[in-house]
User: Fold these one by one.
Assistant:
Number 1:
Amino acid sequence: MKKDIFLPAGAALVLLSILLSLPVRHAHGQDSNTTHDFVAPIVFQAAGPTGLSIQSTVTEYRTALGDPNGNNGSKETGRREINWDGANNNTDTAIGGNPLPNFLVTRGALMTTPDGTGFVQATPDGLAQLFNNPTYATIFRAFSQFRLFSAIGGRLTDVDFFVPGGGNVPALTKGFGAVFTDVDQPDGSGPGVKNGNRKSSTLIEYFGASGELLFSSFVPAAPGNGGQSFLGIVFPDPRIARVRITSGDAAPGPDDDAKLDIVVMDDFIYGEPRPLP
């Protein structure tokens, strides 16, 4: 196992990731309201200066979730992916409402932002124009193709899972992972400071069908501008009904600096949503 920032996934990394993340787990992972006893998920994480730094971990995560990469209609197995670029690798800026229903039928995912007004899919240049901050054109970098994803006016994104093609039939998935760009290293300053150390800015929380917190973990940071980070988990069976993503220290708009870590998202990858038992 390598011990540098690139964190390629492997057996030792997965074990280390689980051990590091377990203290964050909420006691409700074993709540009597759940239908499963708590089992620690397998954790995949990586970070580095470019997409190549995390590519092998993302590939291993896809393998862990399985094939096919589905679109439309419900499947028995496999996974779903959202890369925000569309079939024709769209580079236009697209503004969506709150909630964002675009991927409900085809991918079984409904995005909402509790503290924002909507969502945007855009290239780094498009984000720079939308948020009136020219620095965003250089500090953000896409992992797959061209466009990135962000809440507008907030830093929280909730993803609820439904049976693809089945309307509003609630579902569970066995795993969810996401790619982020420009998750910065802690630097000992800013609003997240505690005891002289800046806390990590970006977090994924995983919830069960009864709203219980199953697991949570911070996203690893990458040095410099445009760095790429990935965090994903896999349970042995479908049990995740919703995830909440906290991206950065603040909603996009202000400068990304020593005081604020501004973070946006790229690919979402998750297990095939299955109907609640």
Number 2:
Amino acid sequence: MSCTAFEGTRRIACGELSDVALKTKEVIDRGPHAPVLIFDDRTSEVVEVDFRGTAAQILKRLPRPAPEAPESDPDTPRGPGRPRLGVVAREVTLLPRHWEWLNRQPGGASVALRKLVEHARKANEGRDRIRLARESAYRFISAMAGNEPGFEEAARALFAGSRDRFEEHSRPWPADVRAHARKLAEAGLS
């Protein structure tokens, strides 16, 4: 997991969570400090780290990313039953006419739904990337620049996709906060 840590508005470190956590621990151990936050670089969610104890203890308690579903090898012969695709069963609520249509599709409802989802993922890839970049940037600026001058105008510019206006309204922010916000927003601005 790649992340970035801040002490107040000053960037402490960025990189792998283990490295960032250890550098952040050094700041905390020095004594009085501004509030410390660590952000996931992809989502800008705050990463909770328990800084009690030794470096080894801290590293042992770090959150671990969820394992990815195993990929099936098309050359490996399969036995009977469902393929090992990392399939997760969940409830889907549809109208009767939707179920009727799905059940008439080759392979049944599950195959048809997977095909529809894959098609939608590919068709919306660009829009999803822009939306996720804007959401991540907004999550970060809300936490770090919510009280800074120009925050509301910068947020509006972010969701409007206006690079010039976002840069203009974020200009008075502390340098490290401004730089990280612009980096996060890059894919969502034109």
Number 3:
Amino acid sequence: MKTILVPTDFSSNANNALKYANAFAQATDNKIVLLHSYIPILGKYDRIPEIVDEENIRVKKESQKNLEILCKKYVKGTCDALLITRNPIETILEVSQKRKFSLIIMGTHGVSGLMQLLFGSNTSGVISKSTVPVLAIPQRYRFRKINTIVYASDLKNTINELKHIIPFAKEFDATIEIVHLDYGYNTTDDEKQLLEKKIKSLSYKKINFIEKKATLELPMADQLKKYLVKHKPQILVMFPEEKSWFDKIFIGSKTEEMANKLKLPLLSIRKTIVKQK
């Protein structure tokens, strides 16, 4: 049995992500570890140390109790509660790597959803550094059977990246749609034909290659968004890295508009993970 790490800050968005994680774990025979991490209150010269210590003890007890309540309330299977007093992002990254979690499921925060995910939230910090795949769940999104996974690809390392998506798709017998926005350069017809041939040679057959003609007159984010709205997949997969195609899509265009309207889970797998294989 594999294990999913679900960080929580006890917010409604984190609770929603836990509900999603529970349904996901039930469907895939995974167990859940619920993690809360926080920075303890530090004593200052104008505070009484004993009072600071008492407050930290109170917060720790209350946090542990809340973790146990959430496990009982939202998780039907195995759920372990883990409380660590340390910087949340550092803790999530360290724990997920040391304990070899298969997946991290987190909620996005704020009315702008993915905007907060990309800029400044704990989810953003985890996605930018995690060596474990991160599945970010938008506000109020409810789990539904995963039939279609859209993989937004720049066609630079498609086969190797697919090898990281296929095990995930197999869990649900889902179709993978490789969506490529074609601007008429960088990839030749021969290269595309060779790619399609390699895709057909893979053991997993539920993979479709979809090429959409793109225009420089519209931001890439808007063009991808139109496809997602029309076809309604259950998950979008992307492979971010510094100054990558991922960044070009979400940064420097109508990012806020995209963030407000993209209402499906985003599975992020770092390109550096693929390169290490």
